Q: What sequence folds into this?
């Protein structure tokens, strides 16, 4: 595979804003780095194959303060290159991008479709749209930049040959399929609340359905409407939790967390269940499951030398029971990872996941 630098003909230094944000372990939040004050630090970030945080808290936190939530970023160059390759936009194509951010990917799309093609890019945040439009204009590109909720697609420019999302979704919005020309394709990061996520390429068919395979694991910020929230029950509430134990092993826990082999499939089986992990010390990792909507919470304390591990559960949903049941089901299917998973969206927008390998096929409807 060619190095990403050779696959990306536009440098991102023309698009990354002069103030960016970095993780700050001291506060647990994000602090600003200004190009004017520290050009070498800014430049190092721009040249690295890493995502750069370009906005926090929907722009409400000013530089110099501590931000709490990442709300826009310029994605890692190698991921951008992989997504563009998966999209396979060609000269003359009409392309819709959801999540303009800095405008860098829109410039790369303009390069791919050339003068005979067209790029429409939709961003939910008006301040980002204004900055991206200016950066694109300054770099000599003229895509149509729109402030709107991209989960609705952008009907005035439809039909599109290609649709690409640079923010992740729990389900492919029907508008994206409806606005893609039959024979066209959609590329999007697809993730559940539990697991963030895989790179999905869907091919749109003549009857309005779409089918595609999951690619590599990728972590992306969510579209605004799919943001995940966690709950921290008070010590008093935690003291009232039902307490049991789990005999699942350390290996099972690795499969179930982060980008473990079970995590993506389990996340599809247990909707609205946000997983977080905290290393309390070298010998104690806590896994928590949260469903803010129903007020349900679970915690599993993985303490070295103590097994079976203690499980606490609160609220109407027994989230750990749901996850361990999904894990047992996943084991029964032959421990197939997302590389064996196909997504089909039928003409009514219902999503079907299919796991298949060696003659074994299991399909189920994905709830969101
Ligand atoms: C990872 S960033 C995009 C990076 C961008 N493509 C670039 O080249 O810099 C994701 C963007 O999606 C935007 N976003 C989130 N929800 C959205 C929505 N519903 N419609 C349009 N944009 C959305 C965010 O504001 C954020 O700017």
A:
């Amino acid at each position: 595979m060619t190095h990403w630098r050779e696959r990306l003909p536009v440098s991102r230094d023309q698009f990354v804003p002069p103030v960016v944000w970095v993780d700050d372990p001291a506060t647990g939040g994000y602090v600003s780095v200004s190009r004017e004050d520290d050009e070498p630090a800014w430049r190092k970030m721009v040249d690295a194959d890493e995502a750069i945080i370009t906005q926090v808290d929907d722009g409400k936190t000013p530089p110099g303060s501590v931000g709490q939530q990442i709300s826009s970023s310029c994605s890692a160059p190698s991921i951008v290159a992989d997504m563009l390759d998966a999209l396979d936009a060609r000269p003359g194509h009409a392309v819709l991008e959801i999540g303009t951010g800095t405008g860098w990917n829109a410039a790369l799309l303009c390069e791919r479709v050339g003068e005979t093609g067209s790029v429409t890019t939709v961003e939910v945040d008006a301040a980002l749209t204004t900055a991206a439009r200016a950066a694109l204009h300054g770099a000599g590109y003229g895509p149509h930049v729109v402030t709107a909720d991209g989960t609705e697609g952008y009907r005035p420019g439809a039909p599109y040959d290609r649709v690409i999302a640079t923010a992740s979704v729990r389900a492919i919005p029907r508008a994206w399929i409806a606005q893609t020309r039959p024979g066209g394709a959609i590329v999007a990061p697809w993730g559940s609340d539990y697991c963030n996520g895989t790179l999905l390429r869907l091919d749109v068919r003549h009857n309005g359905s779409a089918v595609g395979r999951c690619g590599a694991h990728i972590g992306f910020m969510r579209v605004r409407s799919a943001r995940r929230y966690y709950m921290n029950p008070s010590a008093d509430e935690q003291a009232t939790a039902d307490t049991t134990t789990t005999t699942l092993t350390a290996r099972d826990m690795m499969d179930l967390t982060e980008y473990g082999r079970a995590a993506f499939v389990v996340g599809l089986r247990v909707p609205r269940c946000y997983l977080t992990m905290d290393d309390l010390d070298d010998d104690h990792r806590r896994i928590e499951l949260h469903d803010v909507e129903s007020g349900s919470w679970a915690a599993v304390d993985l303490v070295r030398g103590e097994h079976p591990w203690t499980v606490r559960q609160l609220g109407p949903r027994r989230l750990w029971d749901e996850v361990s049941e999904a894990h047992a089901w996943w084991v029964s299917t032959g421990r197939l990872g997302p590389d064996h998973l196909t997504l089909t969206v039928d003409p009514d927008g219902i999503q079907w996941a299919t796991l298949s390998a060696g003659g074994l096929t299991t399909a189920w409807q994905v709830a969101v």
